[in-house]
Amino acid sequence: MLYHLVKKDFLLAKRYWIVLLIAALVLPVFIHTKLMAGGEFPSFFISTLFIAYLMFNSASMAEDKFRGAAYLCATPYTRKKLVIAKYVMVAVLFAACYLLYTLTALIAPLELRLLNLYESGLAVLILQIAFGVIIPIQYRFGYEKSRYIFFFMIFITPFVMPSVIKLLQNSSMDWSNIPLSQPMQGLLFVLLAAVIGAASLLISIRVYASRDL
Amino acid sequence: MKPILEVNELTKQLGSFKLDNVSFSLTEGCITGFIGVNGAGKTTTIKLLLGLIQKDAGEIKFFGKSIQNNEHEFKNRIGIVLDDGYFYDDLTLLEMKNVIAASYSNWDNRLFKRNIDRFGLPLNQRIGTLSKGMRMKYAIALAISHHADLLIMDEPTSGLDPQVRLELMDILLEYVGEGKSVFLSSHITSDLDKVADMLILIHGGRIIFSEEKDLLLDKHGLVKGDNKELNEQSKALFLTLDETDYGFSGLTADKAAVRRQMKNVYIERPSIEDIMLSYIKR
C-alpha cells in the first residue's frame, strides 16, 4: 500500500525527473569546484536540499491542483498512510541523492571526497529539521498558503541568520568537546533526526486527520 | 429488504450552511436517488459519508456497524465516483489504477480489464486527455472492480451527453441486478425517473422526504382545471399552485382528496422534477 503512495508522489513529479537527476550529478561537482577544499559537505547538503525540495514541492503542487488526496481518502487508504508516504518520499530522495553523490565522487575526474559518517549524519539532521518543519506547515495551511509562509521565511533569513550565527559562536556549545568519536556523533545526529522526524510525522498526522478535504 | 446504510441525525456546520439532523437509510439491492438543487447539501452529505469532512454530530452505520469504528471495512466494501473525478490528470489510466487497486483487499484485475475493454478506455493515455464521458466511465470502472456492495456516486451525470448518460444508467441497472446497491446524487432528475427505486430529497441541509419512487409518483398528481374549482379548502390540498386567467395547475400530495373535492379537473402523473420543485418552492 505504502509503496504505491510513495510511487504516486514520484509520478506526480515525473516531468522534473531528468532535470533533477542531472542536477543531482552535476550540482555537487559544480558547488565543490567553487568552494574547493572541504567543500564536500556543503556541496552535497545544498544540492540535496534543492533537489528534495523541488521534487517534494512538485508533488505537492500536483496534489493541490488535482485534489487527488480526497479521492484516495475515500478509498481504504487512511490519511495516516498518506502522510507517512510523504515522509518516506523525502527519505527516498535523500537516499537517492546520497547514492548519486557517491557515484559521482567515485567516477568524477576531479577530487570529490566521499562523505564520512559525521557529515552524512549532519546532512540527515539538517534536512530532517527543514522537512520536519515544511511538511506539517504544508498540511496545516495547504500548498498555496504555505508557499507564502516559506517565502516569508526565506525573506527574513538574511536578517535573522547573522544573529543566530553570532549567538552560536558566543555560546559555550562546542561539538568537539563531546566525548564521542566523529562517527559516533554522526550516528547521534541520525538518531536525533529520527526523533525530530517522528515528532514531525505525529504532528502532520494529527493536523491532517482534522482537515476537511 | 434490509438497510445497507443508515444515517442518523448527521449534522455539520460549514460557514453559513448547516446540514441539519440528516437521517435516511439505503436499502439493499436498490438504486437510491439523492436529489436536490445545487447547494442543497448533497455533496456535503456524501463527503461526510466518505469521511472527507468531519461531522459535528450523528452516526452512520454500514450493515449495522458504525463506520467510524470500521472505516477500513466500510471503504473496502464501497465504490466511489466523485463529481470531478479527483484524478491526477498527469498520470495515465494504468498508473492511477495501480495506486487505487493497491488500497482494496479484493481488487479484481480481470474484472477491471473487462470493464476497461467494455468502455473502450486506453490504459496508457493520460487522464487529463480524456473526455468528460470517458472520465466518468473510467471512474466507474475503478469503482466497480473490487466487488463493492454499495456504489456511492456524486453527480455522475452532470455535464454528460444524453448517450453517455443512458449508457451510465444501463451500467447501474446491471450492477444492481447483481444484488448490489447504488446511492446516486443528482440534480438531473430525468435520469432517476428511469432507474431509481428510492428517492431522497434534500433542501437547505434538511431531508424533505425519503420514499419509494413509485409510491411517490402514485401519491402525487399534477392537477389542471378551471379556476372555479378552487376555494380555500381545495387550495390547501396543493403543494404549489399556479393560477392564470385560463385556469390553474398545481401539484398535490393527496390525489385521493383532490378527486373527492374537485370533480372537473385533470390529474396527470408528475415527473420527479415536478415533485422536487414543488417541495422546494413551498
TrEMBL record, chain A:
The keyword Transmembrane helix applies. InterPro entries: ABC2_memb-like. Keywords: Membrane, Transmembrane, Transmembrane helix. The chain crosses the membrane at residues 12-31, 43-62, 83-101, 121-141, 148-168, 188-209. The keyword Manganese does not apply. This is ABC transporter permease. It comes from Paenibacillus montaniterrae.
From TrEMBL, chain B:
It holds the Pfam family ABC_tran. The keyword Kinase does not apply. Gene3D superfamilies: P-loop containing nucleotide triphosphate hydrolases. The keyword Ligase does not apply. One of its GO terms (molecular function) is ATP binding. Keywords: ATP-binding, Nucleotide-binding, Transport. PROSITE patterns: ABC_TRANSPORTER_1, ABC_TRANSPORTER_2. Residues 4-229 form the ABC transporter domain. This is ABC transporter ATP-binding protein. It comes from Paenibacillus montaniterrae.
